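Box 3.1 A note on notation
Throughout this textbook, protein chains are presented in two layers. The first layer is the amino acid sequence; the second is a token string describing backbone geometry. Keep the layers aligned when reading.
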Amino acid sequence: MSTRKRAVVYSLIIINKAGGLVYQRDFHDGLNKLSINDYLVLAGTFHGVHAITRSLTPAALLTSTTPPIPRSALTGIEVLESALFRLTCFQTVSGTKFLLFTEPQQPNVDVIMRKIYELYADYVMKNPFYQLEMPVRCEAFDRHLVGYVRAR
């Protein structure tokens, strides 16, 4: 029997292109509970910081590479790491941001993020009742997301 501790996915936040919170889900019982207002502030703050960091790329770096880096390829914060958690941000082409909070040792976060985005595309974006940029209220997405995160 293995005594190896499983890495933990703590939480997922989805932010629309305007910086509004459209989805939040905790996967770990030991987290401090935040109010909905705290999550709204977190989403808006991260959106602003992400936009600022996207514009911080030095101009010399843009022109010194061959071929030059197009402005549209610039990204903001992708990973923020502390001793207690890692925040990974994936931004879609449409500007939606997926923030995944995990343990710092969590391997293959990109694979987890890709699967979460796939579930989002399958159960939210293909839902004829979902309105873009609005809060996600889709039971099938919740069920499959929780099943995937807990089964890994």
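The mean pLDDT is 87. The first helix runs from residue 36 to 55.
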